[in-house]
Amino acid sequence: MSDLQFKRHRRLRRTDSMRALVRETHLRKDDLIYPIFVVEGEQVKNEVASMPGVHQVSLDYLTEEMNELVNLGIRSVIVFGVPSEKDEVGSQAYHQEGIVQRAIRQIKEENPSLTVIADTCLCQYTDHGHCGIVRDGDIDNDESLNYLTQTAVTQAEAGADIIAPSNMMDGFVAAIRKGLDEAGFSNIPVMSYAVKYASAFYGPFRDAAHSSPQFGDRRAYQMDPSNRLEAIREAQSDVDEGADFLIVKPALAYLDVMREVKDRYNLPLVAYNVSGEYSMIKAAAQNGWVNEQEIVMEKLTSMKRAGADLIITYFAKDAANYLDQ
Ligand code: PBG
């Protein structure tokens, strides 16, 4: 054996402290952004059937939900509204007293140190369930921009710290940036869902947010899962239009794309660990087929290793608990 030439990689794996010494990727609580679903009404705390542990909450329960996060050391949330009334143009999305605007105001009053991110889209608010305005059976890109901009401005007025447009209309970053600047919100950053695929992994979210399209699908505006170069074109436009953060979504099936975006652009990169990714792990763990804690930490770490600086995840509370152990 003594004449064999090889490297001894195992030297650096011998003990727990040695492994900690050479660990390259670290997950921190500050990396985590927790998504919340707010509904109208009172005393509502509905567990989403396909997302065990995730609830739709009414404003009176929002306080305890936020306090729980703060106690766990989570400092950022992204807010999704589930309005009780929908119409053709999604007017509850940009109403000053819309469910999201009220939720944002309440969170900022009660926990001003939390960073509140507003998801800016129309799909939960339109009766047809599409992310933009429908004209003759098609999503009208440029008309949609006006409604989305108005939505972003009312969210900023309510106190949102970051605007996160997820609708995949062309020019949405440029339109929203201009709208925010004109309304006096030049200091509010845009976290763009720059690279968003038309994905089956969003299924459970659509149950949680009641946002399934009532006809057709989202493939005419969300991206084809087969495409990599298109992701770079999408990210490039959003960088040029003034985005402050880039999101790649979903996360797990798109880690290659995440790495490419990270290597090309120097903006903070956000992984959206979406609903279907959450549900799959929860279901397998409930069956006793995988070790939930280990698998959650491994998956979140893989997103950071792929280049994500931040992770939007329904596992944020679990991960914060694990990090405390
Ligand atoms: C709204 C939006 C969606 C998600 C975030 N924002 C749904 C969709 O595009 O259909 C999905 C999030 C998740 O699955 O966790 N456009």
From TrEMBL:
Q: Which GO terms describe its molecular function?
A: porphobilinogen synthase activity; zinc ion binding
- Metal-binding among keywords: yes
Q: Tell me where the transmembrane regions lie.
A: none
| Needed co-factor(s) | Zn(2+)
Question: What GO terms fall under cellular component here?
Answer: cytosol
Q: Does the keyword Cell wall biogenesis/degradation apply?
A: no
Highest taxon, organism lineage: Bacteria
Alphabetical keyword list: Heme biosynthesis, Lyase, Magnesium, Metal-binding, Porphyrin biosynthesis, Zinc
Its GO biological process annotations read: protoporphyrinogen IX biosynthetic process
Cite the binding residues for 5-aminolevulinate 2.
Answer: S275, Y314
Q: Which CDD domains match?
A: ALAD_PBGS
Enumerate the active-site residues. Answer: K196 (schiff-base intermediate with substrate), K249 (schiff-base intermediate with substrate)
- The UniProt record gives the binding positions of Zn(2+) as C121, C123, C131
Q: What class of enzyme is it?
A: lyase
SMART domains from the UniProt entry = ALAD
Positions annotated to bind Mg(2+): E234
* Description of how the protein assembles with itself and partners: Homooctamer.
Function statement? Catalyzes an early step in the biosynthesis of tetrapyrroles. Binds two molecules of 5-aminolevulinate per subunit, each at a distinct site, and catalyzes their condensation to form porphobilinogen.
In terms of PANTHER family, this protein maps to:
DELTA-AMINOLEVULINIC ACID DEHYDRATASE
Its name, as the record gives it, is Delta-aminolevulinic acid dehydratase
What taxonomic ancestry is recorded? Bacteria, Bacillati, Bacillota, Bacilli, Bacillales
